[in-house]
Amino acid sequence: MEKLFIFKFGGSCFKDNSSLKNTITIINEFQKQAKIVIVTSAFQGITDKLIEWMEFTKSDRTIEESLEKLKSIQNFHEDILNKTIKNLSIKQEVLKFINEKFEELKHCIPILIEKVDTAKDKDFILSYGERLSTFIFAKYLESMNIASEFISADDNFIITDNNFGNSLPILKRIEHSIPSRLIKILERKKIPVITGYYAISEDNFVTTLGRGGSDFSATIIAYSISEYYDTTIIFWKDVSGLLSAPPKFEPHAKLIKYLSFKEAKELAFFGSKILHPLCLNLAEKKKIKVQIRNFEDPFNDEFTTITTEKIENGYIIKAITALENIAMVTIEGESMVSLPGVAAKIFSLIAENNININFISQSSSENNITFGVSESDGFKVGDVLANSDYFGTRWLKVKVDYDVSLVAVVGEGMQYRKGVAGKVFTTLGDAEVNIIAISQGSSELNITFVIKREDLKNAIQSIYHKLIKMNEKTNHK
Q1: Domain presence at residue 273
Q2: Domain tally, the chain
Q3: pLDDT digits (tens, 9 = 90+) for 83-101
Q4: pLDDT in tens, 411-429
């Protein structure tokens, strides 16, 4: 089966003329090994600028003020164009495209000023970051004599549900829509250059894929095409991969060269912002290898590979990670024991208010439930519960603790070793770190606990030096 690399170039790869030149070096080298498909993010900072423009326009601004702010975003793209593409005919084609897209954005100003915009409108507007960067990049490759073809993901390509802001692909549809386009382009010896982050719903509305959306786009494409090619996804980042501890707290943390999908998803969920766990699900289903490589050092053999292959390297604990700023919510009361379905009602109410829970712990007596949320959501939880028809009339006490952190110790080897939890908690005890709450899943892949935020650095360094560092001398597959 012929090899295929799916490259995801993020905003850190799309900063300036120098970074775009680096993509050419990478493409030319990897084309010697396999066919290539490219998925791109918006230029660095543009998504934030589009959000700022929307909020600015909604804050009682005039049409002229909104146009002026939008023009600054247009000028940025025209500046990139002028610095990167020298071929006059291609430059004129791109300039026409840029002008057309910003004319389309101007039509959104009235609904923003009137504050009648919806989640659907927001998805439509935010898609323009990727529309612009991807078209410019595809034409940049053409100007550098690299045959490429631009694909907009909303052109009957990635098809999703209507959950605006966090849509999910409809797998039966993409298994047909994506290969039918890509295979023809690849057979013509061209590189498909595809917009990340956004897609199209079955009802023909633009949708976005949420946090890590462009990474998710790459795995959606890999999932759909892997029956036809031996596929590897390469996420080009500003780091070489996942580390064994947060470098902010442990400067000696080392790169983890091999991870299972389960381990990678745990690390992604509990603090690592390099990948979103959702991005890995589809790759895992089709056993597609994933690599995280350093864009600034692309040919270094030190990078992270995520694989379904069995990894035997003596690791028990692979890494420690943390969510530094969380709030811990405790709901308690003797009446909880006699009230049926209390937990279900709590979590249903939390979900209805778009509050994400990152860990859960319940006492065996069932008279309290503790869960963690982001620090900002901690301020919402008390009001949500107190003002609900159900909990507002019950004898329940809601306590929210701030200044706490969530720590996760991760490693598949923990499943096969007795006493790992004991070693972790003994290490913390020796370091005089008090544990406030504990949660462990049935997979035994991680141990999660809550501590005071002021103890976070001490906890991470203690566990790293006592239980992880000794394994890093044998960091191999």
Answers
A1: no
A2: 2
A3: 999 999 999 999 999 999 9
A4: 887 876 778 889 999 999 9
